[in-house]
């Protein structure tokens, strides 16, 4: 399946459940692939800055003289996009925080979603320019929200990835992680089983 890009976004460091799922995924990948062609980007440990007026000018306008802060932001945006383009399978650890994705992951999308580079507008509407990729979303939650209106994360991830052209998307859920030990064990085992069954 080529090269794998893993995006982590948990702020819970060594207590992170989504990072545990990532570790399990990596173990499976390395068992089935002779090459270690995995890139890991931890968006909590190396955060992408929050987009503001100054940084927006840097990544959207071509005709402005850039400040040092803007140059750094533009370089980061360009390198994140290049990294995304260079990988075939994008694994995104997406914990649910306040019914949505972590700010760290949203900031990443704000830096990679750029008109004319990762999407464009045509007479027929918008068109994604990141094609030929597959995404696997490892999503962890304290409660149980799958297939309910309170799960804003799943439709958002579908929408945003589709928007830039990533159409093949698989979700792996680990829910009920705040509902006691038994629930945690059941939830993790079920998620690991689903990871075991991924066909590369
Ligand atoms: C700031 C914060 C907000 C949270 N919000 C929710 C929530 O809205 N719904 C939910 O089910 N769990 C919520 N949780 C629980 C997390 O989803 C749960 O701890 C999960 O394990 C997070 O993944 P992680 O351990 O990889 O960070 C929240 C946790 C934190 C730290």
Automatic annotation (TrEMBL):
* Pfam families noted in UniProt: Flavodoxin_2
What PANTHER family does the annotation carry? Answer: FMN-DEPENDENT NADH-AZOREDUCTASE 1 (PTHR43741), FMN-DEPENDENT NADH:QUINONE OXIDOREDUCTASE (PTHR43741:SF2)
Identify its protein family.
Answer: Belongs to the azoreductase type 1 family.
What keywords appear on the UniProt entry?
Flavoprotein, FMN, NAD, Oxidoreductase
Whose protein is this, by species?
Answer: Xenorhabdus lircayensis
Q: Which residues bind FMN?
A: 10, 16-18, 96-99, 140-143
What InterPro entries does this protein's entry cite? Flavodoxin_fold, Flavoprotein-like_sf, FMN-dep_NADH:Q_OxRdtase_AzoR1, NADH:quinone_OxRdtase_FMN_depd
Query: Which HAMAP family does UniProt cross-reference here?
Result: Azoreductase_type1 (MF_01216)
List the protein's name.
FMN dependent NADH:quinone oxidoreductase
Q: Which gene does this sequence derive from?
A: azoR
Q: How does it assemble?
A: Homodimer.
Q: Which reaction does it catalyse?
A: N,N-dimethyl-1,4-phenylenediamine + anthranilate + 2 NAD(+) = 2-(4-dimethylaminophenyl)diazenylbenzoate + 2 NADH + 2 H(+); 2 a quinone + NADH + H(+) = 2 a 1,4-benzosemiquinone + NAD(+)
* Cofactor(s) needed: FMN
Summarize the protein's role: Also exhibits azoreductase activity. Catalyzes the reductive cleavage of the azo bond in aromatic azo compounds to the corresponding amines. Quinone reductase that provides resistance to thiol-specific stress caused by electrophilic quinones.
Q: Which domain of life is it from?
A: Bacteria
Q: Does the keyword Membrane apply?
A: no
Domain annotation Flavodoxin-like fold: ranges: 3-194
The entry's free-text remark on the cofactor is: Binds 1 FMN per subunit.
The catalytic activity of this protein is classed by the Enzyme Commission as 1.6.5.-, 1.7.1.17
């Amino acid at each position: 399946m080529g090269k794998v890009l893993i995006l982590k976004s948990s702020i819970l460091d060594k207590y992170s459940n989504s990072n545990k799922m990532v570790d399990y995924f990596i173990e499976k990948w390395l068992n089935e692939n002779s090459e270690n062609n995995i890139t890991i980007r931890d968006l909590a440990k190396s955060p992408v800055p929050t987009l503001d007026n100054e940084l927006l000018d840097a990544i959207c306008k071509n005709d402005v003289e850039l400040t040092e802060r803007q140059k750094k932001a533009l370089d980061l945006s360009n390198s994140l996009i290049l990294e995304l383009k260079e990988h075939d399978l994008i694994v995104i650890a997406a914990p649910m925080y306040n019914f949505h994705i972590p700010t760290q992951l949203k900031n990443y999308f704000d830096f990679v979603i750029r008109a004319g580079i990762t999407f464009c507008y045509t007479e027929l509407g918008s068109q994604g320019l990141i094609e030929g990729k597959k995404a696997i979303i490892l999503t962890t939650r304290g409660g149980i929200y799958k297939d309910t209106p309170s799960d804003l994360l799943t439709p958002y991830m579908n929408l945003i990835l589709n928007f830039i052209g990533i159409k093949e998307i698989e979700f792996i859920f680990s829910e009920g992680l705040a509902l006691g030990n038994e629930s945690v064990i059941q939830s993790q085992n079920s998620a690991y089983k689903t990871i075991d069954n991924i066909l590369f």
